[in-house]
Design brief:
The complex is a heterodimer of chains A (about 280) and B (about 120).
Chain A lengths: L1 E5 L7 H10 L5 E5 L14 E15 L9 H5 L5 E2 L6 E2 L9 H5 L5 E16 L2 E8 L7 H10 L5 E5 L6 H7 L4 E6 L3 H17 L3 E6 L7 H9 L2 E6 L3 H8 L4 H4 L4 H12 L7
Parallel strand pairs in A: 1-8, 1-9, 2-7, 2-8, 9-10, 10-11
Antiparallel strand pairs in A: 3-6, 4-5, 6-7
Helix pairs in contact in A: 4-5
Chain B lengths: L1 E6 L17 E6 L4 E6 L1 H4 L5 H11 L4 E4 L4 H9 L3 E4 L5 H10 L3 E2 L10
Parallel strand pairs in B: 1-4, 4-5
Antiparallel strand pairs in B: 1-2, 2-3, 5-6
Helix pairs in contact in B: 2-3
Classes of the chains: A alpha/beta (about 280), B alpha/beta (about 120).
Chain lengths: ~280, ~120
């Protein structure tokens, strides 16, 4: 069972909820921190057996001795990563999407692919939780290859919780698209509602069942709840607005430790979403 | 010598644009002949990435040896520098004025990217 925890708006509590789900899983669980631009799951876990490995993507390298300056590599590149105005072409590897088109079209095989390190993956264990986290290097614009690598390397456990990046762009899609169920975490504010609506529309297009958790539930108004009702979205849980929870969080203490009364609620969520497990994939 | 000037319009009376990669267009002005041509850059105006690179390619292909603009981002600078194109920053209102300032030497030579990408 793969649950992805996502949101439109940032800072609504995805990591809080992801950790709580991982800590209340009924079986051994894997927590995937896919918020690769700002991963923070590790702060809350005492990790052991930590291993780090690089993530790289293939980018072209031109052999200037055999290049005949035909410019075909530049023409085929849809991402403006190869610039040609004479000889030899210039490569902007940070714009490359690793499609390999330039390598295939080069008539004299002057282009080969070399690895470009864009981030790293950290794995470790915290009690019964298997933890895997991706981190994108500073200044690298493309998060998806690191997220895909996290997902590719995972699958060690029956149950998985994916802590997704915020927003609804490529990185969020990469994180949630293979999941059985998406939990959208939001807050009862105009921003929370607006971004929830965008996230719901996105998940609808991916045909993944979803539910909503409202965090800091008594801090705003009822419009998020009304929207959920209108849309027929299941409101899985409300997490109260509490200084104690916030204080504990800022000290690196997960929700389940600071508000143990919520553990049962999270266990119920596991039971509920298990019904949505996708049969064939 | 041909110089490229960033603009929002299509002729010498048009408004000068201080951005390069995401300028709506360029006037390629031939100083010796006093003639000019317009190059549309609207495709790059909304490009998700590489606008500066493509804009640089356009003016290189048009034969410009000089760029007169307001600012230049890192990737465009790299390409223009490699192609030996000098970049001058002027504070002009129209394309004609930018040409005038360039000829009169009222410019700052841009020697490294002076703005970040996607500014």
């Amino acid at each position: 069972m793969k649950i992805a925890v996502a949101s439109g708006k940032g800072g609504t509590g995805k990591t809080t909820v992801s950790l709580a789900l991982a800590m209340t899983a009924l079986s051994n669980v894997e927590l995937q921190d896919c918020d690769v631009e700002e991963p923070n799951g590790h702060i809350f876990l005492k990790l052991e057996n930590v291993i780090k490995e690089n993530v790289s993507v293939p980018v072209p390298e031109i052999n200037t001795d055999s290049c005949i300056s035909c410019g075909k590599c530049s023409e085929i590149c849809q991402f403006n990563a190869i610039v040609f105005f004479g000889s030899p072409p210039m490569i902007f590897k940070e714009l490359c999407h690793s499609c390999g088109g330039c390598v295939k079209i080069c008539p004299v095989s002057a282009i080969r692919e070399i690895p470009n390190v864009i981030g790293h993956i950290t794995t470790g264990k915290a009690g019964s939780i298997e933890f895997i986290q991706g981190q994108l290097n500073i200044g690298v614009p493309m998060a998806s290859p690191v997220i895909r690598q996290v997902i590719r390397l995972s699958g060690k456990r029956e149950d998985t919780v994916i802590d997704s990046p915020p927003g609804t762009s490529c990185s969020m899609i990469s994180a949630v698209k293979e999941s059985d169920f998406v939990i959208l975490v939001t807050e009862p504010t105009p921003f929370g509602l607006n971004d929830l609506q965008i996230a719901v529309e996105t998940i609808e297009k991916l045909f993944i069942p979803m539910g909503v958790i409202i965090n800091r539930s008594d801090s705003g108004d009822d419009r998020v709840e009304e929207y959920c009702k209108e849309k027929g979205l299941e409101l899985l849980m409300k997490i109260p607005f509490s200084t104690d929870i916030a204080k504990a969080y800022s000290n690196g203490m997960p929700l389940i430790n600071s508000a143990p009364q919520l553990a049962e609620k999270f266990k119920e969520i596991w039971t509920k979403v298990r019904l949505h497990k996708r049969e064939s994939k | 010598m041909k110089i490229a000037i960033t603009t929002t319009g299509k002729d010498l009376t048009s408004e000068f644009e201080s951005r390069f990669g995401r300028a709506p267009g360029f006037i390629i002005y031939d100083i010796d002949k006093g003639s000019f041509e317009f190059i549309d850059n609207s495709v790059n105006l909304n490009a998700p990435q590489g606008a500066g690179i493509q804009a640089a390619m356009s003016i290189i292909k048009a034969g410009a040896k000089v760029l007169v603009s307001g600012h230049c981002g890192p990737k465009a600078f790299k390409v223009l520098n490699e192609a030996g194109i000098k970049i001058y920053s002027v504070e002009a209102l129209t394309v004609a004025q930018a040409v005038e300032y360039f000829v009169a030497g009222r410019f700052t030579l841009i020697q490294s990217a002076d703005v970040g990408g996607h500014w």
